[in-house]
Write a structure and sequence with these properties.
The complex is a heterodimer of chains A (194) and B (182). With 194 residues, chain A is of the alpha+beta class. Chain A has a domain of 125 residues. Chain A is 18% helix and 35% strand. Chain B has a domain of 100 residues: Glutaredoxin, CATH 3.40.30. Chain B has seven helices and seven strands; from the N terminus they run H-E-E-H-H-E-E-E-H-E-E-H-H-H. In chain B, the strands form two sheets. In chain B, strands 3-2-4-5 form a four-stranded mixed beta sheet, with helices on one face. In chain B, strands 1-6 form a two-stranded parallel ribbon. The longest helix of chain B is centred in the C-terminal third of the chain and has 18 residues. Classes of the chains: A alpha+beta (194), B alpha/beta (182). Chains A and B meet through helix 1, helix 2, strand 2, strand 3 and strand 7 of A and strand 6, strand 7 and helix 5 of B. Chain A: This is Large ribosomal subunit protein bL21m. Chain A: GO terms for molecular function: structural constituent of ribosome. Chain A: Keywords: Ribonucleoprotein, Ribosomal protein.
Chain lengths: 194, 182
């Protein structure tokens, strides 16, 4: 989204850390300059800061006008991470307290993104920024798993049957509550017990 | 019996929920539950205890579920559940205590009516990608979009940085040059 303002240097910083190598400089000179007009931008801290502000402004514009479209989120649930959007189904394996019909909010959100941007938590995003809600649709047991232990030539064998609890969650909402870098007056009070 | 044989008999599914359940509204899937038991035999004693103690509470807590009691002479007790999607589940409650039966009733109440099978994936999504799938051209220099192919520079091997040997050779050349000039 920031292609028009970025010169070669910024583009180089964009590909830094990727395993694929940047296009060799020989190729850049071979294309016609009339088609791609690029200029070398001075790499200064001020320019970097300006670019950051511009990017945040663009993201905030999308959030303010609600134009970001469908959002995805990386949630942390029972020791596992899931990449989800609204209307997704997630199975929680093992003991889990909520029963069918319960709706709750997932508070550990590692990342949220839309079509044009991604907000990464360090490691978690603030609770006031993102709201991800889930409904328990089904609680059942997994298929019967068999654990068969056998010692050869020792007349000893043992079979165990196990069915663990499966909780089926429907993610029914992923939303951003306010703009980036614009925290509300009172933070983190929602649903907290003092 | 190996695990392969097991899978062949029991099958496997992906995660699913009937009728988009949970999107906007939630509907309990259990429709009917039937308690079959004998009034005299000892195998149904736990079931009779459950009916005396907990059944009224269960019916009160689940107004959307129809509860049937079916006494049958000299036959073992069982539970039969029927779901909105047409699924059925039968559980034998023979010689089980009322606590065990309570757990199985709770299990039947929270099911969705699909038969239990091994899950191949533990997550389901209808929108696999929002920012688009990764392609080899992602974050590459845009010059290659309008380049004409075949191109010699792209066809040749990737030019790597100078090796240590090459650098040493070059330095030695410079060194030789300096020595010669002096």
């Amino acid at each position: 989204m920031l292609r028009e303002t970025r010169g070669k240097l910024s583009l180089a910083s964009q590909v830094r850390g990727l395993r694929t190598r940047a296009t060799p400089a020989v190729l850049r000179t071979s294309v016609q300059p009339s088609v791609v007009e690029q200029e070398v931008v001075e790499h200064t801290p001020e320019a970097e800061e300006e670019l950051t502000k511009y990017a945040i402004q663009r993201v905030n514009d999308q959030i303010g006008e609600n134009k970001h479209g469908r959002l995805f989120a990386v949630i942390y649930l029972q020791g596992k991470q899931h990449l989800v959007t609204a209307e997704d189904l997630v199975v929680v394996q093992g003991p889990f307290a909520p029963t069918i019909g319960d709706t709750f909010r997932l508070e550990k959100i590692l990342a949220v993104g839309g079509r044009d941007f991604t907000l990464l938590g360090r490691p978690l995003l603030h609770k006031d920024l993102v709201n991800v809600e889930a409904t328990v649709v089904e609680k059942s047991l997994s298929h019967c798993r068999i654990f068969f232990y056998n010692r050869r030539r020792k007349n000893s064998r043992k079979t165990k049957f196990e069915r663990e609890t499966h909780t089926l969650l429907r993610i029914h909402r992923v939303e951003l509550l306010h703009k980036v870098n614009e925290a509300p007056d009172i933070e983190g009070v929602d649903g907290r017990i003092f | 019996m190996t695990s392969q044989t097991w899978n062949r008999f029991w099958g496997s599914t992906f995660v699913k929920a009937p009728l988009q359940n949970g999107v906007g509204r939630y509907v309990q899937q259990l429709q009917r539950i039937t308690f079959k038991f004998c009034k005299t035999h000892g195998g149904s004693r736990g079931m009779r205890d459950f009916i005396e103690k907990d059944l009224i509470e269960f019916a009160r807590m689940n107004p959307g579920v129809v509860v049937y009691l079916k006494p049958r002479r000299h036959r073992s007790s069982c539970l039969k559940a029927e779901y909105l999607n047409g699924g059925e589940e039968y559980i034998s409650a023979h010689k089980q205590s009322s606590e065990e039966i309570k757990k199985w009733v709770e299990y039947l109440r929270t099911q969705s009516g699909y038969s239990v099978e091994r899950l191949r994936k533990y997550q389901h999504t209808d929108r696999p990608s929002i920012q688009g799938p990764w392609t080899p051209w992602m974050h590459r220099d845009q010059c290659i979009n309008i380049a004409e192919y075949p191109q010699e520079e792209l066809s040749c091997a990737v030019k790597r940085e100078k090796t240590a040997t090459q650098e040493l050779l070059e330095k030695s050349k410079i060194f030789v040059g300096v020595n010669n000039s002096s």
